[in-house]
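User: Please predict the structure of the protein below. I'd like the answer in structure-token form so I can feed it into my own downstream comparison script.

Assistant: Understood. Taking the following sequence of 167 residues as input:
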Amino acid sequence: MKCEPAAYTIADLERAGRAGWEGVRNFQARNYMRDEMQEGDGVLFYASNADPSGVTGLATIAKAGYPDPFAFKKGHQYYDEGSKKESPTWYTVDVVFDERFPGTVSLETLKSTAGLENMVVTKKGSRLSIQPVTTPEYDIVVRLGRAAKPDEEVSAPRPSRRRRPAG
């Protein structure tokens, strides 16, 4: 699951303990949340548009896909007039914090690590905020994350056009 640091970070999730991953407005990402993600599934928390971009920690799906309540809330930035409670368009999941890595497993590291050659996030043009990860890929990234050297300096995120899409 990818999120820009200007919107939400692994540290924010650590403080909150649990959060809804609301605001996803891409149909393919929505389908992953609605149809594929199940309670207990592991999550790689990826800081996108960061310096460096990469995996910063772990979370777990605490509640499988359910209608995004903000899609029905007039005036909210995620309100969608076309989404109806009886036939919702947008879904969310709840995630709980598991672990923050000592450093970021950068995209460059992911791209150069054996066993991650087919990982979706390493592919050119792969911009979805929700992406599938195989169990072997997940295990490799967890090993890399736990062995990561502490980030020397946290740099400011690049400016974002979106405010708080958690996904």
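That's the full token string. Helices lie at 10-16, 27-36, 107-112, 135-147.
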